[in-house]
Write a structure and sequence with these properties.
The complex is a heterodimer of chains A (230) and B (344). Chain A is α+β, with helices and mostly antiparallel strands. Chain A has nine helices and seven strands. In chain A, helix 4 packs across helix 5. Chain B is an alpha/beta fold and 344 residues long. The chains are: A alpha+beta (230), B alpha/beta (344). The structure holds zinc ion.
Chain lengths: 230, 344
């Protein structure tokens, strides 16, 4: 592995933005907040929830009418999972369709008998796994259902085209788990491992939606310059 | 890379020797040339400068935060602002709000020699303590990437206010009595206990003496509760419950205070205001029957609408629980401050 992708050579900078809403655009936001401090070769990461918010995918629960299937299935979901809320389950059905949700529910049932966890989300797919039933703890999104971002790779590439920065769409939770949902070019396994490792301390902070941007800076330029997306 | 502030975040820290401090940490790409300080007149910066993106109700809470605040300004010379110009709601009982905004360039003559400067306006509940003729603020600067500047403020004003005060806390329900149930699985007895625990932590740190009716999932009758509270001889009592509604999309919050008791009403108003500032919640006021033999300011708070799914989901986050408790704490301490001022 080239030495620049090492922890000692890395600085993580968190950037506090204005409160991002559906009136904002991911490319503009990242450009605005990084142009004064980013250098070619830096990586920029943005929280998936704010990308979803900018895409208008924060859903007002008043507008969701839960059906019988959502009511039934949400009862079997783990209480801590977002789809345990009826309205979030309804949105999950809307996102991926009834057949897929039914298949996921069946697999979850089999999983329960065999003692395998997490089958519902594995079968239902990332669109469902990324639904948050609480938009965070700050107005104005605290009562919304936040869906996962649409076309995360495409968004990341658009940012790269304008800023030249390798862009990642990230889901970092307060327990330290990191998920890379989108990247402006395909990540090699050791690269995603590295990113997950350096972000494990949840650099977005979980207190509100106002530090959704991070810049991973490589302190010494050198070997292993990152090529642009093809 | 130019020197700039990237991030600002508040925290409350208990250090060794039981030092208790509010901190504001700035993350920067380089340390400032100089940090200046001055107190601001009490009416400075009353406009909150809020963007329309904030929910209207929340913005109203923010301007309330700025009212009656003590204002201090730190000016950082030689740094720019990369983070958004912002009003950061702190509401930790001591610091109400921090406003980060650019000042005018200063320096001799032409612009090329002038230095950018950033103001950090700190709005506090109480005047910050002084040591001799200096403000007791500890400023620590650490180089690196990110570089940090940490401002530490002693929370002694809160200990002065709450130290030795006996406070009654009554978490509702418990044991066989589950209270209201959330759409997924949370129960009122659990939620009330968790909020109480957080609140008790804060009050204990402030040196208050607690009189608590239950500390676990126990059956406690109304009679027993009253007995515990009476025996503890508290200066004020707060009962903790949650609200609920038949309409799954309704969000009701309530604050009940003993009628015909101006101190109960004042305590209720202060807690309601604090919940509004910190959480954007606007509790309806309700009436509480007087408790026989307990002639002290008495309120009942319902700071969560458990039948509403997003409230239930939010409550699973420890930070949300802390914020709820912090709001109630802020209301109690402000009430004590007001009655203290009135007495002296
Ligand atoms: Zn109750």
């Amino acid at each position: 592995m080239p030495y620049r992708w090492s922890e000692q050579n890395t600085a993580i900078l968190r950037i506090r933005t204005h409160l991002i809403t559906e009136k904002d655009d991911p490319v503009d936001v990242i450009d605005k907040y990084t142009k004064a401090i980013a250098a070619p070769g830096d990586l920029v990461g943005i929280a998936e929830s704010v990308v979803a918010i900018m895409q208008g995918r924060a859903i007002d629960p008043d507008a969701v009418k839960p059906g019988i299937l959502a009511r039934l299935l949400s009862r079997f979901a783990h209480p801590d999972s977002s789809v345990s809320a009826v309205r979030s389950m309804q949105m999950a059905i809307k996102e991926v369709g009834v057949p897929k949700i039914m298949a996921a529910a069946l697999c979850a049932l089999v999983g329960k008998i065999l003692g395998i966890k997490g089958l519902f989300f594995r079968v239902a797919g990332p669109e469902v796994a990324q639904i948050d039933d609480s938009g965070g703890t700050m107005p104005p999104f605290e009562r919304h259902i936040i869906l996962g971002p649409k076309h995360p790779d495409r968004v990341a590439r658009q940012v790269w085209k304008r800023t030249g920065l390798w862009t990642l769409i990230l889901d970092v939770n307060d327990k330290g788990a990191v998920d890379i949902l989108g990247s402006s070019l395909p990540l090699k396994p050791h690269q995603s491992e590295f990113i997950k490792h350096v972000l494990r301390s949840n650099p977005f902070g979980n207190d509100d939606q106002k530090t959704p941007l991070i810049l991973i800076k490589f302190l010494k330029p050198g070997a292993g310059e990152i090529p642009g997306p093809v | 890379m130019k020197k700039a502030i990237l991030n600002a975040w508040p925290s409350v820290v208990v250090g060794d020797r039981n030092q208790w401090q509010s901190k504001l940490t700035l993350e920067l790409t380089g340390l400032p040339e100089e940090i200046r300080f001055r107190a601001l007149p009490d009416n400075a910066g009353t406009n909150t400068g809020l963007k329309p993106a904030h929910a209207a109700g929340f913005a109203a809470g923010l301007s309330a935060l700025c009212k009656d605040a003590h204002r201090y300004r730190f000016t950082l010379q030689g740094v720019d602002l990369v983070m958004a110009e912002d009003d950061i709601v702190v509401a930790d009982g001591l610091i109400k709000l921090v406003r980060v905004h650019p000042g005018r360039h200063t320096g001799p003559g032409n612009m090329s020699e002038s230095l950018p400067q950033i103001h950090l306006d700190i709005f506090t509940e109480y005047p910050l303590p002084e040591q001799g003729d200096k403000l007791a603020v500890d400023i620590q600067q650490t180089p690196g990437l990110p570089a940090t500047v940490t401002f530490s403020f002693s929370r002694k004003p809160l200990r002065d206010l709450l130290g030795g005060v006996r406070i009654g806390i009554d978490p509702g329900h418990g044991g066989k009595d589950k209270g209201i149930q959330g759409p997924v699985d949370l129960t009122e007895k659990y939620v009330a206990l968790e909020i109480s625990r957080e609140l008790c932590n804060l009050l204990e740190l402030s040196g208050a003496h607690l009189v608590v009716t239950r500390t676990g999932d126990l059956d406690v009758t109304e009679k027993e509760r009253l007995h515990i509270l009476r025996a503890g001889n508290p200066a004020l009592c707060v009962e903790i419950h949650v609200s609920g509604s038949d309409n799954p999309l309704a969000q009701v919050y309530k604050l009940a205070a003993t009628q015909d008791c101006s101190d109960s009403q004042l305590l209720g108003r202060e807690i309601a205001l604090a919940l509004h500032e910190r959480m954007g919640i606007r509790p309806e006021s309700a009436v509480l029957p007087p408790r026989p033999g307990l002639e002290v300011p008495y309120v009942r708070v319902e700071p969560l609408c458990l039948t509403y799914f997003a409230d239930e989901a939010n409550f699973r986050a420890p930070l949300f629980r802390k914020r709820l408790a912090q709001s109630i704490y802020n209301g109690i301490s402000r009430y004590l401050h007001k009655t203290k001022v009135r007495q002296s």
